[in-house]
Task: structure prediction
Amino acid sequence: MNNFKEIKLTELPFSPFDIKDKWMLVTAQKDGKVNTMTASWGMFGIMWNKEVVSVVIRPQRYTKEFIDNADSFSITLFDKNFKKELGYLGTVSGRDEDKIAKAGLTVVHKNNVPFFDEAEVVIIAKKLYSQPWDGDFFVDAKLIDQWYPEKDFHTMYVAEIETVLKKD
Result:
């Protein structure tokens, strides 16, 4: 495993608002198998007096099964040289192939939570709350037309940030 050092959340080498441009992998383990998905939506903040991260996952995503069955998951961010691999991981399902191996990434673990050795930054997060979104609660109904024409609303997960790792 490459060398990672534990840092404080305030020492992140990027703004949390840069995630939409960086992309990230959301990764969890179920029954000894690891699956991941590319994401660009999420939030950092304070909830219940804890530093938290929120991610959203559509119901048809294979990774959702893994997140639902795990207590914790990882969010990994990579430098720009991994854009091709992240694009691939976002278009292929782990149901159909070992997409992690095909992308050439190495799975490692911290406290039994999987992440990738090639990452630049790793966030280990423990689930605190999850809730499927419902179209009845959108104040701006145009968002439904724009993002949910098939009514496949995301499930939102709020998780406590337990560990932040940065590659040395």
